[in-house]
Amino acid sequence: MPEVLQIYIERVIEYTPPLVESLYETGIMMIFAMVAAILLGLPLGTLLYLASKGKPLENKFFYQISNIFVNIVRSFPFLLLVVVMQPLIRYFYGRATGDPVAASFPMMLIAIALYARFVEQSLHDVPKGVLETARSMGVTTPQLVWKFLYVEARSSLIIGFTTAFVSFISYSTIMGVVGGGGIGDFAIRYGYQRYETDIMYTAIAVIIVFVVFAQWLGLRLAEKLDKR
Known about the structure:
The protein is mainly alpha-helical.
């Protein structure tokens, strides 16, 4: 084995404990973000669709308010969003940095807005014929959503969630800038700040592997669910 490679492997082994801990912290942030996206982003995106013009629950006021919220959160620079939310997180949670749970709050907010927009767009792509068929059958709004819209748009919803998931990974790395923990914090503290470029590139490689795997898994699942 070349000496350089052997030295690199030894260094990676040395830094494995903090790397594993950082992956655990990233996992916590990702879980909170995914749960928020599904439990709150999916319903919000569905309501945005239903409240839009010409849809079953058309409500101009609700749509405009919700649309403004989604647009503001999505367009807000994430690092600044983290900084702005810190006093609020500290007030309700007790601390704003150094804890993956505290770091999850900004990610949850952006996850809700991001996936809500994906959901709304996916539902708008459902063919009008599906809606006309549902209306002719006299279905209720919940039945329309669960038995027609979600079924028809399931592949697109999975792709949208995959895209959002990749964004969540990027946002989790940004949390390292403010001491929020995670793989980004590991890359900055053990790689960038110590001039250990090989360790920094190792962390980057781990992030890339996660992104590629998530995209592959999401696309495969979407293809499997696409019955068209």
